[in-house]
Amino acid sequence: MSTKPSKQLEVFENPQQETDYTIRITVPEFTCLCPKTGQPDFADLTLEYIPDQLCVELKSLKLYVWSFRDEGAFHEDVTNQILRDLVAATNPRFMRLTANFNVRGGIYTTVVAEHRAEGWQPPPPVTLP
């Protein structure tokens, strides 16, 4: 069992490539450091994506998220960096990362970053009576 953080994201082949379906992953223990004060920042991350050919492997995602624990980062930057790295690893049809940062100085921050593959269109929403 690995006991070290890692920037390496592993993937596996999507077993349902012909279907648009959503994978939702919640990471309730994200931690990085404030680049101004060095104090810890805590966030709940929600990753939602529609895979194409590849899916992210969860253990590698856990070690990847852990790798930010001792890094200073602005909320906006770290959210977009994580999204870019996940998109580079999986090349999804669609991906959204929502980072809900805990209160700091009386202010909550939520950062939402999205990626949409060129030419991909979501199916129309279903409206039930």
Give the helix/strand layout.
Elements lengths: L10 E3 L9 E11 L6 E11 L3 E3 L1 H9 L8 H16 L3 E11 L2 E10 L13
Antiparallel strand pairs: 1-4, 2-3, 3-5, 5-6
Give a written overview of the molecule:
By secondary structure, the chain is an alpha+beta fold. Helices cover 19% and strands 38% of the residues. It has two helices and six strands. The chain has a four-stranded antiparallel sheet with strand order 2-3-5-6, with helices on one face. A two-stranded antiparallel sheet has the order 1-4. Strand 2 and strand 3 form a beta hairpin.
Key features?
129 residues; 4-stranded antiparallel beta sheet
- The oligomeric state of the chains shown is single chain
Unreliable stretches covering 5 or more consecutive residues:
none
Which descriptor suits the 3D outline? globular
Strand order of the largest sheet: 2-3-5-6
β-sheet strand percentage: 35-45%
Major β-sheet, in short?
4 strands, antiparallel
The residue-averaged pLDDT reads: 95
Cα radius of gyration in angstroms: 16 Å
Structural class: alpha+beta
Helix amount, in percent?
10-25%
The total strand number stands at 6
What is the count of DSSP helices, taking H or I runs of 4+ residues?
Answer: 2
Order of helices and strands: EEEEHHEE
**How far apart are the first and last residues' alpha carbons, in Å?**
50 Å
